[in-house]
Design brief:
With 111 residues, this protein is of the alpha/beta class. The chain has a single domain (2-85), classed as D-Maltodextrin-Binding Protein, domain 2 (3-Layer(aba) Sandwich), CATH 3.40.190.10. Helices cover 41% and strands 13% of the residues. It is built from 3 helices and 3 strands. The chain has helices spanning 2-22, 42-56, 70-79, and strands at residues 29-34, 60-65, 84-85. It has a 3-stranded parallel beta sheet with strand order 2-1-3. Helix 2 (42-56) links the parallel strand 1 and strand 2 (60-65).
Length: 111
Amino acid sequence: MKKTSCISAALLALAIILLAVTGFAQNKINIFISTGPTTGVTYPMGGGMADILNKFVPNLNATAGTTDGSMANLLLIKQGKADLGLCMGTRPGMPTRARISSRGNRSMFAR
């Protein structure tokens, strides 16, 4: 339940930010949501997020695409190839304090 509320809060925050940005511009904004393999949990979740954003945020074109998973999503964000990435923090050996920030960030993980 806690994970669902965190995802809902993040989606709501993203929608509010995008609503504020799109209120000033008439051009469509394209965002890419990196998900995971088609057999995983994050792929349908990312597709659903893109559908909701497209439906309720004007001038936004959100697309979800397949990737190799959580670590690939973090790298895609760092490289500027994805705007939003879904990440599962429950994998063994994966840092639990991953920082997803602006594309210009030098460090991928919080210290």
